[in-house]
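Human:
If only I could read backbone structure tokens as easily as an amino acid sequence. I am handing you a single protein, as its sequence and its fold in token form. I hope you can help me see how the letters and the tokens relate. Thank you; the sequence and its tokens follow:
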Amino acid sequence: MTRRECLAVSASLALAGPLARRSFAAPASGPLRFVHMTDWHVQPEAHAPDGIAAAVGAVLKLDPEPEFVVAGGDQIMDAFATDRARADVQFDLFDELVGPLGRPVHACVGNHDVFGWGAMDRVPKEADGFGKELFRRRFGLEKTYRAFDAGDWRFYMLDNIRPSIKFGYMAALDKEQRAWLEADLAAKPPGQPAVVVSHVPIVTALLLHPRAFVHGIYQIPPAVVAADSYDLSRLFTKYGVKLALSGHLHLRDRVEIGGVTYINGGAVCGKWWAGPNQGVEEGFGVVDLYPDGRFAYRYADSGWDVPAG
């Protein structure tokens, strides 16, 4: 199935009703495998197409191959502070580059996927596709958050990008999404394990941001770590979430708290196509899910390096 065919299927299913849940069968034997590819930052420049091609090639060499791809946000280099023409060039290129994957790509929205929020002096709110509307259309979605079942697991693709006057954007669920999430978690079978995917980390040990320690006090901006982390972490523990995946920081860490494992999954682009970011190579996560709620995770190097010269 091509990328555009996958999008057509997603769009037709979305018409079935608000947040219609899709199901994907588990393989005949063994765990359910998917890959978590976050912070692609697709652009025509900086050898990004070659880097994406290498990552796609590495995914297709996995044995067993994944059933689908979870894209963790910032699929393109930037729509936040650019015009519509430039945003379309990047989204078109993303479609072209992921086509060879030949399997569903389930994407959550990242701050760089939001059109126009950082360019409101040039892009009016009335502009076609403004905000998250362009992302929603490009991925054939009814809403920018949703749930689907795969094998014995439930997946929650969250949208934790919100506008902020001070920071341009901040990370937290809005009230409508928060209410939907709790209702769906409460309604799912009690023993069904769940995976949560967000762009900005909900829980992370990474305090390496230059603004993290100010005047002798840790001050983590809500554009770096989710402002609703405490509330959501309690909710996840209560309702059997086993794994929470994120990106945004282009770094890797793993935190286990309250029975939930939080993994910040590096970046397909590394240091925005300028090499590894603080030692984290360009790559993606390979995840195997078992029916009893166990999982295995490893980070795979895509094998791409910045060309010499």
User: Anything to note?
Assistant: Confidence is low (pLDDT under 50) at residues 1-21. Residues 28 and 151 are 10 Å apart (CA to CA). DSSP finds six helices and 16 strands in the chain.
